[in-house]
């Protein structure tokens, strides 16, 4: 996705903020989140690391992380972006609409992961295509309404447009048979929605 020139967010902040919303991440994950080329992401991470804003971990917790200084810097820069775009009111209104949808999304994820069989909640083993299809139809209906919220957000701050692309892509993959894209992948619909939730909180300077 190409970001419009108006209120465009620089790549340095996109990478920094991706780590704020997604947590520790590899270059591949950051590419998925931001849409930037991995070479450009790596260059930005090197610069951010030199400034003490990110660090790279190895071992079981491998990946790039925000430092405390990085988290504080992201908060300042995201607030500056919001205020310079005069977008706080629009983002707040969209966030209120997001919060109305959020419980429904959580219920859908539960319906995808669990099934009521003879009055007992059991893990959905996805052996019943008809059941999965019904839940995916509900996701598609939900997604049409979520798209309107994403449109409001991207009109206020263009960087939010990436979430619409990722949500639609996850649902398309799930409908094509890649069922992990509903709830069980770092690129799943549920994960992207959770990152959007975290992004809205961070952008508005709010706590959960």
TrEMBL record:
Domain of life: Bacteria
Stated name of the protein: Uncharacterized protein
């Amino acid at each position: 996705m190409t970001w419009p020139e108006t209120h465009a967010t620089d790549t340095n902040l996109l990478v920094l903020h991706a780590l704020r919303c997604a947590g520790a991440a590899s270059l591949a994950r950051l590419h998925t989140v931001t849409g930037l080329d991995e070479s450009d992401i790596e260059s930005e991470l090197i610069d951010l690391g030199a400034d003490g804003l990110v660090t790279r971990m190895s071992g079981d917790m491998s990946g790039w992380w925000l430092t405390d200084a990085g988290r504080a810097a992201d908060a300042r820069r995201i607030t500056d972006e919001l205020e310079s775009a005069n977008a706080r009111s629009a983002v707040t209104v969209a966030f209120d609409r997001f919060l109305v949808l959020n419980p429904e999304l959580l219920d859908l994820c539960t319906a995808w992961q669990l099934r009521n069989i003879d009055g007992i909640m059991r893990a959905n083993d996805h052996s019943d295509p008809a059941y999965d299809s019904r839940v995916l139809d509900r996701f598609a209906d939900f997604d049409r309404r979520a798209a309107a919220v994403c449109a409001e957000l991207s009109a206020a701050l263009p960087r939010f447009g990436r979430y619409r692309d990722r949500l639609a892509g996850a649902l398309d993959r799930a409908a094509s048979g890649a069922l992990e894209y509903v709830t069980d992948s770092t690129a799943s619909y549920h994960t992207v929605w959770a990152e959007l939730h975290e992004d809205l909180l961070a952008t508005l300077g709010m706590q959960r």
